[in-house]
User: Fold these one by one.
Assistant:
Number 1:
Amino acid sequence: MSVVETRGLAKRYGRTIALQDCDLTLPEGQLAALVGPNGAGKSTLLNLVVGLSRPSSGEVVVLDGIPAGSLAALDGIAYVAQDMPLYRNLSAADMIHLTRNLNGTFDDAYAQRRLDDLGIEPRRRSGRLSGGQRAQLALTLALARHPRLLVLDEPTASLDPLARHDFMATVMAAMAEDGVSVVLSSHVLSELERVADYLVLISHGRVRIDGVVEDLLGTHRLLTGPTGGERDPGWHAVQETAAGAQTTLLARTVAPVPTAQGWESRPVTLEELTMAYLREEKPSTPWTLVEVAS
Amino acid sequence: MDRSSPIAFTLDPGSGVPTYLQLVHQVEHAVRLGYLTPGDQLPKVREVVAALAINPNTVLKAYRELENKGLTSGRPGQGTFLSSAVEQVDLTGLTGLRRRLLTWLGDADGTGLDHAGIVALFTSTLRDFDERRETRGAGRRAGGGVA
């Protein structure tokens, strides 16, 4: 079962290629995180998935084969855009009223309960809510439709740490209770390890790596050893830093324990892995890996 | 809300230990120290998820691991409970281990290793040990559902 499937998906704006050769299968019941630098093509991909734009070539289907953008697809997907789309002059209650009337399915009781839990005064204009409350209101409107797929475009970018935690807790609770699948784009790499089942790394309009987070972490190691020393043949360096006599590698390898003399190895975090791949794309740029080998 | 569980999970994001393992370790630790006793209920998945803002699949994985280790059992529709058959390290065993560790620390000190060096050596050896044990154990683990 897949919630999103793309084959040879590409999107061009005039002569600019925003996305190309995109082949993805995102699993159901999981959270897939989309990461990559600004302008990499994350929002382009999300817009194609929710049907806000049409592919230049290739195809994208959602929820087990439904064409993206079709009525059936729209019914099963909820999308919260980057800027928390709310009518600023409408109250929270009005926003609920509006969303209820614009959608076939809407769980009024859920929405009201969430407002209570969040301490949002229903008559307060949404423009006067705090950033965290606005985000939670937009999320509540999306979740009250009981979608099968929730799509979030950088939902926590502008939130303080507490609001970010509460927002993600709401998303996670919806996964646990409703079984909703989630696709979200994010720059907050540190939070992804706790929330992501699946990772898609996009840069320069292409999918760089994608896979189950656990598998990615299980097949990469951070290795520290002598510069110029012997290396295991199974290591594929993604990133390499030499500091005098000591070299640090972030490498693809299946063996947890190095056999080459003088090398130490430890697991990588998702943040380290992501950073290494993001940097690999621009090998000419000088960089230093700030890393304390333990 | 149901009766609250005697254990509340916390996370150490800087530890480098995978989240599900942190949960597993905390249950094991609580059992060893007697905070959790047979029949006690672990928090419901949605409670853990809402408290820590972590993926429910991570919690399910931790609970599955605990069940595979024989520490807990899932009762469909009710939750996950600590099994009656829980091995506890006996105190005399701990005393012996501690004595040998002290001897080892003395040896390490004798070779000129300082505190940080001892910690680094121990940590990296323990990590290798865990990984070897995990590689060995991975084969016999079977999937099991947790309600």
Number 2:
Amino acid sequence: MAAESVTCPECGAELSFPAKVMIGEIVPCLECGVELEVTGIDPLAVDLAPMEMEDWGE
Amino acid sequence: MSEERLTVGIAGASGYTGGELLRLLLGHPQVEVTQVTANRSVGKFVHQVHPHLRGRSALRFIDSGSLEPCDVLFLALPHGEAQTQIERYAGLAGRIIDLSADFRLSDPERYAAAYGQAHLAPDWLPRFVYGLPEINREALRGARYASGVGCNATATTLAMRAAVLAGYLKADQPIISDVKVGSSEAGNSPSESSHHPARSGVVRPFSLVGHRHESEVKQAFAADGPFDIRLSVTSVEMVRGAAAAVHVTLPAGLDDRDIWKAYRSAWSGEPFVRIVHDKVSLHRHPEPRLLAGTNHADVGWDYDPATGRAVLLCALDNLGKGASGTAVQCLNLMCGFEETTALTFGGMYP
């Protein structure tokens, strides 16, 4: 199955996703680890997914 | 069918960098370690000094005066010793890789300023290529003589390099490299400061200004600008590892994606440097513990766009990428071997 590529809005990495991803699916960026939500299929689009952040004692 | 392997000697093989060299070279398919010297351990098998090498070698230590000719000679001697006999060593081997500080600085005056005494073989300084492949790869290919690298210098150089290449750093700003280091940096000779009750659990600043490796980093970036680089080094509770945090101010208007682009431009294609800058997770920045036994250097950063303040990071194993791993990488380049040969161990976790 063909893969589609998309740019990570956080770090600019070019990411390849399998063509069967679904809208609403959460996929981590391979390079910066941010969670991306699939917001469109044709064309493929992603946005940053809301994430719960650690406060690291701050 | 067997391909003829290069013969290798290690002078000063009983120390920690010598032991790490042995561990790596005993797994190198294109070389054979044929002699190891250690004047304090003559006659002992290597595993009697390096217990993790039991069963991997039947070599016994010889005294340095008994060295015989070989194809490649590694010098893992205390600082200051290699320069006293470099002519003799060069007569024994066509290629030399010296892990000490003796031939890292090409300028005798810079050496004297950093080490407090005149170099004893200044004519040899320009014959050695500074042995950090990430900045000197082409000069190392086919070279006969390569220096080693300083572990703290390497951590600082690699932490800074992407920002330097991107033109982010200015020569008129102090660049402060805060380096945390493990106990193996001090070598295997016991001392009052390494005694367990005195060393265990410490966060001990020991060289906050005037560290000798500053000259090495300045030399590494001499072609890019006269940067004001200062090292502050602190011993922490760790055996292997060095972690540099280099405090700088970046130009206004950058965002994190610009820095990602600079790092990718600097490091894509490098076999041993990895960018670690995760948005989430426990291990979002470079950490030395994950790199023990490897030849990797992990680089990353943290950045405050509101102030331009940034901290450039690098973690490595001081005995690996900071010494013996890089020396084997130099060997591979000097001899035309695949650069990653014998260096592919990826580390352990937890």
